[in-house]
């Protein structure tokens, strides 16, 4: 039996494009002699469809796509993910399902039992968990077909009280197929590998695993679909961060013709680099835009975003706007110009002085006698947002946000100023990782000016300002933030690790007080296990460690 | 047996304040001779605590509060909601629980079975559903104690496959108690009344129902706790939108000394009026702020917000900033001044011309030869945001957002301009309801100038602009939006109701295309069954009816 794994890049709700792509892959799999082609979880509508699922019409469009896809399944069988209606009146109205299609017809439907409802996942919001289980019979073989999370309940602290494979294994299946929508984070690849391998070992069955690839606003799917033998050894892995389709031979007992391979994922920073480029590219392509604008300060964050955007969209599609203020140092403009030169992207220089002066004059009667403070600092940052948004409105450029995760965490940024943008490129990348990414981009030649990398970080909103005036050094700050944000450690536990007590309390309070700002920031490309945005839902008017 | 219902206003994560308030109510209930005092769902930490629940320390602080509360329960028993740890390794780590405390000690814990995970609710994100049920025994009586949603599974399309009362009734309880955190929407009161009354009729038991009161960022709890007899007739209702504590006598069979009362809720607009005032007040008080700023245009939306803020915070705490542009009509400033005069709040007039001109000059080389368009319109709206945010940064005023639901829906607003603010007061109020609220506020005397109410709506961002240039009339638009947003009807169904087909497609596409703007808007006070924000989760890069 020949089985094709089709790892595709879907677009949420774009039924025409998804269906066309799926049908093309069915044709490709047939050409390659496959008896069965396997697509990912919720492939017909893209993942996550969110509240689109609450529209009856949306689910009908899924049904319609499945009919078209089934019609294309002549001389080949197909497994594909889609929502289906729950026929029972009790419970949620939908299941998260996998169709089995054979001879042009739907012959069986498997429903997901374990519904991830944590971090960025909201599946129990829409779906009823399945409580009945049976294998798929195909060409005299039994397939234990599960959907993503269904295989994830085998760790030390299981989230669910049961595991679907414990039921399916009673029917003595020949192998496992799992269809998934498993988002990228820099440490997820290792977890996924281990969980899937552990399933093979536990049930002593080979496994074919199909993930999606591509970015959906903030959630990035990295592909990397996997094939394991019954000993939990990896036999093959599909490409990362791009579409792929490969065919495997199953001889009734094992997947044949493949040797055991080592699992050697790229270093974290290289994974993040690829993820961010895919994230930017898909945000633009799936939104129907091609051109980006950003404010280029001469600092490291905007330099990095500019370099990533140039790689994702082509330098000719990136407009860098240099907006020096009276507090900008001379070398900032030069550093920015050097970068633009290195990348070959477009630029404009627009000093903000006239607008900032106008605001200060207009406000002078009201602010009379009061000292310069954050109000005047923020006026400058907001003048810049007015300018780059004017570029956006006039030319159809999409504004890239350049705030990094360390800043987002402690609220070091100006709402409606440098926190503006359509998509946050670095909002899940700590400042220390920003440096690593910049150095990675410069691995062969200096693209990001060395001066942008080595100079002390500064918002340049008042004379001689440095980030370190109001924040601890980033190597300390980022470690502390990681303990609180990613690991959800208590202040007590963090202090016990040797961090200064006063600093811990101050930083955690800053994080919690900045919640109102983060609520209004753009969606952030998620590359870590705990990104700001949909995956971290905090009360705004809440009084906890603040 | 005397039972006190304590309907209190909690603050999420403010353990000190919540515990103090709860212990004071225990004292009050004792003074009134109660044997048992009943508090709401998750009372110790406030509802919804969201991802605070993922911090072990947060749950420990809940435990600590419960210990303090238990110590105060001498000569009185108490029922109170709190998260508790799930002792079983399988499943989620927490339960959403009700403690029964007697003689200063926790004697029983009841766990919630039905976990709302829809709209603004995310309970399955945190909690394991209970699967075991038993009544509380107290003074020789059996209490069927449930938590909020546990009583809600008796409608025609039940969301869950079981109902806890079907189990509890097997133990022949004497009456029901339900502790809740049931948020306000203008139609929710009727639903709640019917569901609770139906439970009484179905199980032939009296019911004491305790809700919370108070606002938590966007979610407003209206109180209105209820007492029913076994025939499902209402015997009493606690106050709406304020704290209340009342004591009832249960004689072993029935709640005595009370006649059947009619359920006569206030008209929708009056409910919304009270909800918005509570929403504004609690946002400020719970955040530790007292003063508001807003841009006052002379139009109806900002006039209404100004009036609501003056009522919620006191006119002396409201700063209205009039920011005319060259396109503002003369009467706009006069209408705004009349309002300020009527309310007695503070004001400043700052024309935006100088800043807007500065931006246009700065951008002239780049925009040369291109026609005036939305870029220049938005510069004006963003100049206003820079000014009001400067007030906020300089004086500690909190910016109120004045966008209405109709505008938010179709994206008729400027991101980082008039869409800025800390809290959206009218973001869940359609334009047609804005007029109704204005007329309600003017019911006794003209507070909002009649001219602001009767003139055609306009953003005044270009000469002679009217909303009706780019939008249908609001009475048509709002009805169409209601079908799509609140009722989730398909375009086909909406067209079948007689709406113009082209208009329906255009408006729905506008709604879906504006998702990226709504993602960055402030939290919106929720007064309808489907508000923008946490309760409506749409993909941004999604292609569905757009």
From TrEMBL, chains A, B:
SUPFAM superfamilies assigned: Adenine nucleotide alpha hydrolases-like, Carbon-nitrogen hydrolase
Q: Which residues does the annotation say bind L-glutamine? A: 118, 182
- Pfam family, any one: CN_hydrolase
UniProt pathway: Cofactor biosynthesis; NAD(+) biosynthesis; NAD(+) from deamido-NAD(+) (L-Gln route): step 1/1
Origin organism of this chain? Answer: Paradesertivirga mongoliensis
- Role this protein plays: Catalyzes the ATP-dependent amidation of deamido-NAD to form NAD. Uses L-glutamine as a nitrogen source.
Domain spans labelled CN hydrolase: 1-252
Chain sites annotated for binding deamido-NAD(+): 378, 407, 517
Q: Kindly list the positions annotated as binding ATP.
A: 295-302, 402
Q: Cross-referenced InterPro entries, in alphabetical order?
A: C-N_Hydrolase, C-N_Hydrolase_sf, Gln-dep_NAD_synthase, NAD/GMP_synthase, NAD_synthase, Nitrilase/CN_hydratase_CS, Rossmann-like_a/b/a_fold
For this chain, the family text in UniProt reads: In the C-terminal section; belongs to the NAD synthetase family.
Assigned keywords, A-Z: ATP-binding, Ligase, NAD, Nucleotide-binding
Q: Which GO terms describe its molecular function?
A: NAD+ synthase (glutamine-hydrolyzing) activity
**NCBIfam families per UniProt:** nadE (TIGR00552), PRK13981.1 (NF010588)
List the EC numbers from the record.
6.3.5.1
- Catalytic machinery residues: 41, 112, 148
Q: Which reaction does it catalyse?
A: deamido-NAD(+) + L-glutamine + ATP + H2O = L-glutamate + AMP + diphosphate + NAD(+) + H(+)
Q: Provide the protein name.
A: Glutamine-dependent NAD(+) synthetase
């Amino acid at each position: 039996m020949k089985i094709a794994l089709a790892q595709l890049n879907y677009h949420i709700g774009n039924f025409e494009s998804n269906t066309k792509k799926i049908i093309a892959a069915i044709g490709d799999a047939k050409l390659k002699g496959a008896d069965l082609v396997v697509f990912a979880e919720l492939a017909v509508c893209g993942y996550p469809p969110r509240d689109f699922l609450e529209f009856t019409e949306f689910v009908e469009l899924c049904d319609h796509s499945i009919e078209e896809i089934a019609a294309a399944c002549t001389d080949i069988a197909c497994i594909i993910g889609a929502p289906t209606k729950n026929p029972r009146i009790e419970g949620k109205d939908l299941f998260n399902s996998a169709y089995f299609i054979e001879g042009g017809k739907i012959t069986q439907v498997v429903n997901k039992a374990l519904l991830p409802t944590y971090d960025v996942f909201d599946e129990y919001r829409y779906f009823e968990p399945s409580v009945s289980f049976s294998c798929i019979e195909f060409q005299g073989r039994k397939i234990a077909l599960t959907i993503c999370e269904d295989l994830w309940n085998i760790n030390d602290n299981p989230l669910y009280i049961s595991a679907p494979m414990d039921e399916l294994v009673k029917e003595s299946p020949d192998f496992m197929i799992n269809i998934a929508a498993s988002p990228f984070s820099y440490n997820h690849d290792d977890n996924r590998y281990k969980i899937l391998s552990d399933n093979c070992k536990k049930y002593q069955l080979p496994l074919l695993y199909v993930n999606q690839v591509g970015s959906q606003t903030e959630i990035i799917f990295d592909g990397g679909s996997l094939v394991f033998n019954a000993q939990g050894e990896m036999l093959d892995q599909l490409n990362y961060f791009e579409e792929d389709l490969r065919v495997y031979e199953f001889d009734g007992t094992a997947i044949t013709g493949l040797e055991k391979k080592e699992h050697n994922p790229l270093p974290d920073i290289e994974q993040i680099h690829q993820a961010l480029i895919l994230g930017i590219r898909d945000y633009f392509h799936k939104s129907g835009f091609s051109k980006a604008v950003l404010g280029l300060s001469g600092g490291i964050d905007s330099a990095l975003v500019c370099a990533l955007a140039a790689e994702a969209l082509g330098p000719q599609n990136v407009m860098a706007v240099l907006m020096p203020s009276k507090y900008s140092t001379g070398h900032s403009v030069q550093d920015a110009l050097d970068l633009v030169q290195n990348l070959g992207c477009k630029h404009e220089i627009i000093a903000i002085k006239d607008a900032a002066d106008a605001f200060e004059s207009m406000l002078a009667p009201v602010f009379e006698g009061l000292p310069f403070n954050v109000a005047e600092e923020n006026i400058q940052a907001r003048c810049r947002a007015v300018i780059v948004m004017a570029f956006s409105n006039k030319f159809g450029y999409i504004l890239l946000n350049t705030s990094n995760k360390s800043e987002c965490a402690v609220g070091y940024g100006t709402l409606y100023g440098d926190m503006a943008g359509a998509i946050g490129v670095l909002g899940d990348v700590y400042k220390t990782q920003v440096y690593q990414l910049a150095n990675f981009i410069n691995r062969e030649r200096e693209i990001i000016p060395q001066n942008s990398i080595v100079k002390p970080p500064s918002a340049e909103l008042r004379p001689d300002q440095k980030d370190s005036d109001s924040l601890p050094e980033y190597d300390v700050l980022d470690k502390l933030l990681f303990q609180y944000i990613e690991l959800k450690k208590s202040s007590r536990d963090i202090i016990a690790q040797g961090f200064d007590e006063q600093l811990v309390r101050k930083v955690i309070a800053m994080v919690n007080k900045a919640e109102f700002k983060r609520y209004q920031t753009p969606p952030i490309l998620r590359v870590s296990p705990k990104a700001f945005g949909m995956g971290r839902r905090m009360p705004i008017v809440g009084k906890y460690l603040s």
